[in-house]
Amino acid sequence: MRSSIIAISLALGLAVPAAAQQAGDTQSAPAPLNPRTADSGLPLTPAQEATGLPYLDLRLKVDPESQTIEGMADYTIEALSALDRFEVDLDPRFTVSSVTVDGVPVEWTADKGFMSIPLGKTLARGETAKVAIAWNGTPHIAERAPWQGGFVWDTIEDGRPWVATAVQMNGCDLFWPCIDYPTKEIERLDSAITVPEGLVAAGNGTFAGSETNDGWTTWKWSARSPNIYAVALNIGPYDVYEDTYQSRFGNSIPLYFWYLPGNGEKAKTLMQEMKTYLDFFEDMIGPYPFGDEKVGLVETPHLGMEHQTINAYGAKFKPSPLGYDGLAQHEFSHEWFANQLTNTQPNDMWLQEGLGTYMQPLFQQWRDGEAAYLAAIVSQRASLINNSPVVPAEPISTGFYLDEDAGWGRDIYSKGSQIAHTLRGLIGDEAFFSSLRRLVYGRIDPRPGNFVPQFADTEDFERIASEQGGEDLGWFFDAYLRQAALPKLIEERDGNALSLTWQTEGGTPFPMPIEVQVDGETVVADMSSGSAVVDLGSDDAHYVIDPMYKVLRYSPYIARWQAWMVEQREKAKKAEEAKAAD
Questions:
Q1: Is residue 293 within 8 Å of residue 444, measured between CB atoms?
Q2: How far apart are CA 330 and CA 59, in angstroms?
Q3: What's 130's DSSP letter?
Q4: How buried is residue 100: exposed, middle or buried, by Cβ count under 10 Å (0-12/13-18/19+)?
Q5: Which of 326, 88, 85, 323 is nearest to 186 (CA)?
Q6: Between 18 and 324, where is the model more confident?
Q7: Ordered DSSP codes for 54-82
Q8: Is the pLDDT of residue 473 over 90?
Q9: CB atoms within 10 A of CB 448
Q10: pLDDT beyond 60 at 23
């Protein structure tokens, strides 16, 4: 999600609007979110910048019958610089019943989803305080989970409750008080989820026990540095399948799948498939980042989301002609590209979504070979929109994700994947995969226990790739990530001479070498000056530019097809409007 799944939904042939609505059709339209709560990744205040979050004890009671929640968030906060207040985001539809600082009740202010809590003193750097916030109310119902987030209140066939949250685009403040910004992870999150007896609450991290009292069961979990939007509730009458994976790095990783009654065999089959994904990721990228906790899957009444160590799965075990569950594999990729590596700001979300999307063609290459890889790469190109830079120049929030005209929320997937593919071809496998390891783990030699969660932006990846590739790649990142239009290759033939010239949107340098196949023989055109002339050998020689699709570039064929598709949609829309008017 975030949702990280529009592109994978299209690749799987799923109708995105219908899939997005699958759990919401019977629910009345919720009251609109206020603008601050609707967005995630808004600029931090000075107090939020100065706040460290070493610990949170988060307790939630979820009542499916009334569709309400009660919560208590007991924070330990640390001053990263002088700090006199704790500022958090929380949907104003909730009632805050109490706030204490070091056990003493305090007055606080709240304004349209933003709470400011005075500490009563100024903490010096390194000093800590305990802040407890109690709240309750009716949470926002997701209109199109997971694309437009919130709670999904559903039931299974026998009427028992089935509840989930998905909040990537809108943020953690949809149901608990948090600093709604990607770098503000909590170092240790202990959670206790209380639900009606007979239901299971599958959570992030490791299981810490359960207890039942007076018709309610509390499920306890403990998670290390969870991605802020990847903290999730998953509640239902689940059964659980358990297994173990023996890692190539020597450690044993527990695997769990919380599934609905009757889906045991399907869950077992998918979990065996997950072992193949684990082998792939550990081979190509590095050790599973949360091997000390678990690999977790849970069936949800929405399509999917990369909730840390408890990935949401709602694809209903559909078979695929590709021979693997693309949704499960894509969401699992985010344990590396989102949960271990987290973008420092929404502008850099392609590091999560684009690299995560590239893991599907790469998996097909690893499992099935070159032909499967190239087929997957080629199939992605027609979906590129190229209306907005993948990395916008101005700071954005996650609200930009759903801007259909800009198309940014689509391009960060497949265009990001295509950029990764082209970068790999440019600098070679050794430099490319070393760059990914440094980006994800902060080091080139990751082993279980020798790395910590990483935060990075596009400039970090540019620096790493340049160092590993042995050349300044600023021109590459400028052309593909900071400009909207794809580079164009202008070709002119005069007898046996083929002239090639690169043209970029901003006129920036683009010395990308390009392969040319001439009568079956391949030569590499040196484009270090931005242009080159290739000797075809004869006036009637047949040539093919970039025969292996190594370089992402503008295609007039795709552009013409896309324009035709827009015309067809407009005609269909006008026909529907005319029909409605009759």
A1: no
A2: 30
A3: E
A4: middle
A5: 88
A6: 324
A7: EEEEEEEEEETTTTEEEEEEEEEEEESS-
A8: yes
A9: 16
A10: no
CA dihedral sign of residues 303, 458, 345, 38 = negative
Write the single-letter amino acid at 553: R
Place of tokens 């949250």: 165
User: Could you tell me how far CA 457 lies from the centroid of its own chain?
Assistant: 14
Q: Positive or negative CA dihedral for 431, 350, 152, 16? A: negative
Report residue 331 as tokens: 């969401």
Q: What is the mean pLDDT of the chain?
A: 94
Strands 252-259 and 295-299 come out as parallel
pLDDT for the residue 164? 98
Tell me which H or E stretch contains 361.
Answer: helix 350-368
Q: For tokens 């299981």, what's the residue? A: 207
> pTM of the predicted model, to two decimals?
0.94
Produce one character per residue of 286-295: b if its CB has 16 or more CB atoms within 10 Å, e if not: bbbbbbebbb
pLDDT tens figures, 281-340: 999 999 999 999 999 999 999 999 999 999 999 999 999 999 999 999 999 999 999 999
Adjacency order of strands within the sheet including 216-224: 104-105, 95-101, 128-137, 68-79, 51-63, 188-196, 216-224, 206-213
- Average pLDDT in the 110-119 region? 97
- DSSP string computed for 259-320: E-TT-HHHHHHHHHHHHHHHHHHHHHT-S-TTTTT-EEEEE-SSSEE--TTSEEE-STT---
Residues in the chain: 582
Residue in this structure with the two tokens 């790095």, named with its chain if needed = 249
* Residue 118, strand partner residues: 85
Residue in this structure with the two tokens 């933003």, named with its chain if needed: 114
